[in-house]
Amino acid sequence: MVLPNRDSEAIIDKPKLLLVEGKDEVEFFNALLKKINKQDEVLVIPVGGKDNFKYSFPATVKRSGFREKVRSIAIVRDGDNDYMAAFESVKNIVKDNGYVPPRDPDSFNTSGIIKVGIFIMPGDLQNGMLEHLCLRTQAENPIMQCVDSFIQSVAAIEDITQPKNLVKAKAQAFLSVMPEIVNTVGLGAQKGYWNLEHDCLFKLNQFLDEL
Hints:
- This protein is of the alpha/beta class.
- It has helices at about 25-35, 55-60, 65-70, 85-95, 130-135, 140-155, 165-175, 185-190, 200-210; strands at about 15-20, 40-45, 70-80, 105-110, 115-120.
- It has 2 domains: about 5-130 and about 200-210, Dna Topoisomerase Vi A Subunit, Chain: A, domain 2 (3-Layer(aba) Sandwich); about 130-190, no CATH class.
- Helix 1 packs parallel to helix 8, helix 5 crosses helix 7 and helix 6 crosses helix 7 (about 165-175).
């Protein structure tokens, strides 16, 4: 059995909770929440991987003070290769613990005592992950042309092991040429290397605002 990340046991001191996959997402969402002036309202909790939502969600809602303090809770996870399967997985976790999930991804259900939301990254009903969304914020940056050329050149080389995840490789390549090198997209957000004002973040910002 996979145990939830100990960070999911952090003291609940805010009325809104955001459960995310890991510490990288915590860094990203704290940067985004600060950008939209929501950082004082939302506690971002990492669960230690997508497979741990089924443990961390029930542990979170059963903690002392949850019902008294929390007005809304949201789960954000990557869609990976099947965003609808990811949504159904989270939806079932919410239902199995006595809460009413939203009918559709990237939205909230407001009929229960606690508002519950589910957002599947990168949003807009597309497969993918946080890195896809980060890269979209810099799609117009000339550096991305160099990153794409580099990745394509590597892919053309025979007899070498290619990156298992190209989008993660592209994100790392972009971050490697920033003024201060960081090794995660979350820290990249903290450094301001992703354009958190980009239009592609509109729906995610709308979701966080509704939280």
